[in-house]
Structures are given as C-alpha cells and as structure tokens.
Amino acid sequence: MLKVENLVVRYGMIEAIKGISFEVHDGEIVTLIGANGAGKTTTMHAISGLLKPVSGNIYLNDVDLTKVPPHKIVSMGLAQVPEGRRVFAQQTVEENLILGAYSRTDAAGIAQDMEHVFELFPRLKERRTQLGGTLSGGEQQMLAMGRALMAKPKIMLMDEPSMGLSPLLVKEIFHIIQDINAQGTTVLLVEQNAKMALAIANRAYVLETGKITLEGTGRELASSEQVKKAYLGG
Ligand code: ATP
User: Least C-beta-crowded within 10 Å: which of 111, 194, 197, 202?
Assistant: First the structure.
C-alpha cells in the first residue's frame, strides 16, 4: 500500500534522512522506532507532503506522492496525526472533527463518521462543545486521532501518540490504535515508546540517524538483543 524507496531528505546542509526504504502493506500496523533526532518526524512529513525530499520515491498504491500536492494526498486516503497533537485551540471538539473531513462532501457520511469517532472516544462526546485548547493532553491526542479519522483514511500516519501521556492513557491510546486497525485502517506508527509500539506492530523498522538499521516483525525486534539494549532499557 505504501512504499518508500531510497528516500533522502535534507534541511540545508544537514542530511536528516539518508536513503531509507520501507513498506507498509494493506491492513498492517507498521512502526518506525528510533531515538530523539533519528528522523522519524522528518520521514512522516516527507510522506504527507509537508517536506520535499531531495530524492527517492514514495508510492501510495502506485501513485508517486512526491509528485502530488499535500492537500490532494489527504483525499487519496492518507491522513496524518501530527506530533504534539496540534488541535485547533479556538474551535470546539465538534468543529475540529468537521475540519478533519474538509476533503469530503458527503454530509450524511460525515455525520455518521462523527458518531463513530464518538463511539471510539466517549470522552470526546461528553466534550463536544468544549474548545480544543481546554482539553487535557490525552483528550487532545484523542481529538487529533478523531480528526484524522474524519478524512476516512485508508492509511493513518501517527507521530508519537504516546508523547507526554500517563502510562494508563498510553495503554488506552494503543488499544484504540488496534481498534482503528481492526476496523480496516492501515497504520504507520512512529514512536519513541518502543515497547508499546513493538507490542502492537505486525512489522517494525529501527531508524538511527537517518538510516534503517534493523527490520523484522514486532515480536522479532522486541526480542532482539540490540533493540533491548538501545530501546527497551536492557
Ligand atoms: P524526535 O523524536 O525528537 O521528534 P525525530 O526522530 O522525529 O526526533 P526529526 O525531528 O525527524 O527526528 O529530526 C531529524 C534530524 O533533522 C535531527 O537531527 C534534527 O535536528 C534535524 N531537523 C529537524 N527539523 C529541522 C529543521 N527544520 N531544520 C534543520 N534541521 C532539522
């Protein structure tokens, strides 16, 4: 479904991504784990069109996304949940969700999907008229995920959904990611919380200073000595 080939991304003189290749197949949860500054967010931004790569190709079902403008990428079925949540602070929960559906025109379907988001996140339903900026960190994460779902994506990119959340909330968010996947959305998950990410991933890649150094199933990487030492606290 998603195929990244020899991707190179630079910020001026700094080569943040040094020719990486990886794939996400239909229906999978794939995770990209790595330390601070490894290039996880940069990779996400290149896929969603926010950053232009120096070279390489990114195929979404055979269409090269590097040649597609970012706003079109959403309507092709790819939605991103950005790092740090970035909800619209001055808009209500409901307005934030509607904004997530901007690429759609089917009003009945949009209303139906909003109800579906409220089923996944009952807390958002209770707060539907509350301003985004007044939600707790965990609720903002839920809203950012709900907003991405409103685009009805075939594949969802999630950038560190566990960041800044309590262990209990992290568990809840990861359960919901599994639910979203079980309902048919393919997931590319970028995480520093390697333990949780590997536990739910079908396959995983380790990113180190702009290069992929290891790949395997979630289970394989979770039991790899190298991964244990570097990312799972020994
Ligand atoms: P984190 O987990 O800390 O968010 P990351 O793996 O997502 O890290 P990136 O944010 O992709 O890492 O950064 C990769 C590298 O690119 C880092 O060395 C970073 O300093 C550099 N970088 C990121 N954004 C810029 C920018 N706008 N200008 C210059 N360098 C940047």
Answer: 111
